[in-house]
UniProtKB/TrEMBL annotation:
<keyword id="KW-0547">Nucleotide-binding</keyword>
<feature type="binding site">
    <location>
        <position position="110"/>
    </location>
    <ligand>
        <name>(6S)-NADPHX</name>
    </ligand>
</feature>
<dbReference type="GO" id="GO:0052855">
    <property type="term" value="F:ADP-dependent NAD(P)H-hydrate dehydratase activity"/>
</dbReference>
<dbReference type="GO" id="GO:0110051">
    <property type="term" value="P:metabolite repair"/>
</dbReference>
<dbReference type="Pfam" id="PF01256">
    <property type="entry name" value="Carb_kinase"/>
</dbReference>
<dbReference type="GO" id="GO:0052856">
    <property type="term" value="F:NAD(P)HX epimerase activity"/>
</dbReference>
<keyword id="KW-0456">Lyase</keyword>
<feature type="binding site">
    <location>
        <position position="168"/>
    </location>
    <ligand>
        <name>(6S)-NADPHX</name>
    </ligand>
</feature>
<keyword id="KW-0521">NADP</keyword>
<feature type="binding site">
    <location>
        <position position="235"/>
    </location>
    <ligand>
        <name>(6S)-NADPHX</name>
    </ligand>
</feature>
<comment type="subunit">
    <text>Homotetramer.</text>
</comment>
<comment type="function">
    <text>Catalyzes the dehydration of the S-form of NAD(P)HX at the expense of ADP, which is converted to AMP. Together with NAD(P)HX epimerase, which catalyzes the epimerization of the S- and R-forms, the enzyme allows the repair of both epimers of NAD(P)HX, a damaged form of NAD(P)H that is a result of enzymatic or heat-dependent hydration.</text>
</comment>
<dbReference type="GO" id="GO:0046496">
    <property type="term" value="P:nicotinamide nucleotide metabolic process"/>
</dbReference>
<comment type="similarity">
    <text>Belongs to the NnrD/CARKD family.</text>
</comment>
<dbReference type="InterPro" id="IPR029056">
    <property type="entry name" value="Ribokinase-like"/>
</dbReference>
<keyword id="KW-0520">NAD</keyword>
<feature type="binding site">
    <location>
        <begin position="205"/>
        <end position="209"/>
    </location>
    <ligand>
        <name>AMP</name>
    </ligand>
</feature>
Length: 305
């Protein structure tokens, strides 16, 4: 089974989506990202996602993590606001209302499925009650791959509440099995089928990343580098895309721009550090170079025509 795939967007279209701040903005108006991430086993994933989010422009990044991860997250960056995830209440209305105070939530980076009940409860309650855009990543994708997850995803779609999934190949296989999708699909067809089954925008990650929307459109992002094939780079990507959602981009635009920025940051890191030595910890520091690569008029390379 094959589906038509649109090519990577040109630089000019991506650059037009960059959410540079207005002169009279404030930290809340710029976008408030709630990052429900970081178990006792994987506190680093919350730190990596928060690095991506803050560098990608979120005005306020708030991490809700396991109690045992709090010290690690608080010590990672002074600008991060870190709270115990028992204080996460997805049904509470946001301060300032939606228009003046745009919000998004990323859930699942560093969720440890062995933690079972606690993380499953966080995901299911967030699917049910969180009205603003929601990105599900990492260990939460394994929890979503269940009859309850499928039902809550369908209920979100029926209410028009945006959902975005960022699986790697292993996580996509679990999501497909839970939705009884035949396994013999190529990556673009799998992304499209998952988008339909979960009523979500899907960025199926890999050497090429396929972004499928809920109407059956699929586009590829093929600017990456094998330097990105290291633990934790996906957590940084989730934070970047979450920050773009919080700044008002639609799920498909946030995925397209976020994946392109992540890939450009990987290439800039590779140029400085070599493909061997790049780590996920480096990526956020190369996001400024990625922004410049997309935004500069001189960046009209093969992707920019
Ligand atoms: N520093 C940290 O704290 C890190 C935490 N992480 C977290 O660790 C948790 C588990 O994530 P993992 O991805 O390690 O484990 P998973 O168990 O979710 O997935 C890995 C399994 O999927 C299979 N697989 C198939 N196709 C794959 C593909 N294209 N890419 C990767 N794996 C593929 C692998 O063979 C492996 O068996 C997540 O919550 C994640 O966010 C990881 O992101 C690594 C870094
Ligand atoms: N060979 C490759 N070429 C380009 N990009 C890659 C390659 N391998 C992995 N990536 C990218 O690296 C990231 C890995 O994400 P993921 O598998 O979720 O890692 P983790 O769970 O460790 O954070 C994805 O954005 C993926 O597209």
């Amino acid at each position: 089974m094959t589906v038509p795939v649109a090519p990577s967007r040109p630089n000019a279209s991506l650059a037009a989506l960059l959410p540079f701040p207005a002169a009279d903005t404030n930290k809340y108006r710029r976008g408030h990202l709630s990052l429900v991430a970081g178990s006792a086993a994987y506190p680093g994933a919350a730190c990596l996602a928060a690095d991506g989010a803050t560098r990608a422009g979120a005005g306020y990044t708030e991490v809700f993590c396991a109690g045992k991860a709090l010290l690690t997250v608080r010590g990672h960056r002074p600008s991060l606001v870190a709270r115990d995830w028992r204080a996460w209440h997805p049904g509470r209305p946001s301060r300032g209302g939606n228009g003046d105070h745009p919000r998004a939530c990323v859930i699942g980076c560093g969720f440890d499925t062995a933690e079972g009940g606690a993380t499953a409860g966080l995901l299911m309650e967030t699917l049910r009650a969180w009205e603003a855009p929601l990105l599900v990543d990492g260990g939460a994708l394994g929890l979503l791959a269940s009859p309850t997850g499928l039902r809550l995803a369908a209920e979100r779609a029926a209410k028009g509440r945006p959902l975005l999934l960022t699986p790697h190949g292993g996580e996509a296989a679990r999501l497909a099995a839970a939705a009884s999708l035949a396994p013999d699909r190529d990556a673009p067809a799998l992304a499209a089928a998952l988008a339909r089954a979960y009523g979500a925008t899907v960025a199926l990650k890999g050497p090429r990343t396929y972004i499928a929307d809920t109407r059956g459109n699929v586009e590829v992002m093929d600017r990456g580098t094998a330097a990105l094939a290291k633990a934790g780079t996906g957590d940084v990507l989730a934070g970047i895309i979450g920050a773009l959602l919080a700044q008002g981009l639609s799920p498909v635009d946030a995925a397209a721009l976020g994946c392109a920025l992540h890939a450009e940051a990987g290439r800039a890191a590779e140029a400085a550090l070599s493909a061997l030595c790049v780590t996920a910890d480096d990526l956020a520091d190369f996001l400024p170079a990625a922004v410049r690569a997309l935004a500069a008029p001189a960046a009209a390379d093969a992707h920019g025509q």
